[in-house]
């Protein structure tokens, strides 16, 4: 849940975090960036409360996501990702740099040039643009993942898709060429 103080609203005299209902707007954060100027408190900082968000299933069994940030204009994505034991992210490419911080569990390269690479709790891995692999979580896991552009997934029928199954080039092709 995103909470914003209406312009001109004051905190209570005690300075507590409790605000009157009319002074605070609450809205569900859909994790999509806005196109406004960054000159007011409402457009400068965006607080996302993952504890108040529902996990969303992906098309990959055992993989759920909470989108924290999505900038459709640039492709920038930050997400919490939760994996059940044995869950696999099939053959995919990191179009630009990908970064993952493992909070719980283990992330293992099941296939690809770094096959066997294992990243555990408290460890951070980043991957070069163009890196391609299959990721696996033998014991499950919770990770904070950041992508400059969403991954390309290579389907068995030859299609190239994003995590939702949509045609990657149609959605992200134009932003992947931006520098």
Characterise the protein shown here.
This protein is mainly beta and 179 residues long. The chain has two domains: 53 residues, no CATH class; 123 residues, Jelly Rolls (Sandwich), CATH 2.60.120.10. It has two helices and 14 strands, in the order ββαββββββββββββα. The radius of gyration is 19 Å and the shape is globular.
Keyphrases for this structure?
179 residues, mainly beta, 14 strands
Brief digest:
By secondary structure, the chain is mainly beta. The chain is 7% helix and 40% strand.
CATH architecture grouping of the largest domain: Sandwich
The number of distinct structural domains comes to 2
Structural class per helix/strand content?
Answer: mainly beta
**Quaternary form:** single chain
Q: What is the CATH superfamily classification of the largest domain?
A: Jelly Rolls
Strand order of the largest sheet: 3-4-5-12-7-10
- Described by the principal axes of the CA atoms, the overall outline is globular
Count of helical stretches = 2
Q: Using the CA coordinates, give the radius of gyration.
A: 19 Å
Cα separation of the termini: 32 Å
Q: Provide the β-strand percentage band.
A: 35-45%
What is the class of the largest domain in the CATH system?
Mainly Beta
Mean of all residue-level pLDDT scores: 80
> What's the helix-strand series?
EEHEEEEEEEEEEEEH
Tell me roughly what share of residues is in helical segments.
under 10%
Look up the CATH topology of the largest domain: Jelly Rolls
Major beta-sheet overview: 6 strands, antiparallel
Write the layout of secondary structure elements.
Blueprint: E1 2-5, E2 24-27, H1 41-44, E3 56-57, E4 63-70, E5 77-83, E6 87-94, E7 98-105, E8 107-111, E9 118-119, E10 124-127, E11 131-137, E12 141-147, E13 152-154, E14 160-161, H2 168-176
Antiparallel strand pairs: 1-2, 3-4, 4-5, 5-12, 6-11, 6-13, 7-10, 7-12, 8-9, 8-11, 13-14
């Amino acid at each position: 849940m995103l909470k914003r103080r209406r312009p001109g609203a004051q905190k209570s005299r005690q300075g507590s975090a409790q605000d009157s209902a009319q002074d605070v707007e609450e809205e569900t954060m859909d994790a999509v960036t806005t196109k406004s100027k960054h000159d007011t408190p409402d457009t400068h900082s965006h607080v996302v409360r993952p504890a108040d968000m529902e996990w969303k299933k992906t098309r990959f069994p055992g993989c759920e996501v909470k989108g924290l940030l999505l900038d459709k204009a640039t492709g920038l994505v930050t997400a919490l990702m939760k994996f059940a034991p044995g869950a696999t992210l099939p053959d995919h490419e990191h179009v630009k740099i990908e970064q993952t911080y493992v909070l719980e569990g283990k992330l293992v390269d099941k296939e690809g040039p770094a096959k066997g690479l294992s990243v555990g709790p408290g460890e951070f891995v980043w991957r070069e643009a163009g890196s391609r692999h299959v990721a696996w979580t033998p014991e499950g896991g919770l990770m904070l993942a950041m992508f400059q552009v969403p991954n390309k997934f290579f389907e068995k029928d030859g299609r190239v898709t994003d995590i939702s199954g949509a045609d990657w080039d149609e959605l992200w092709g134009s932003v992947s060429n931006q520098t």
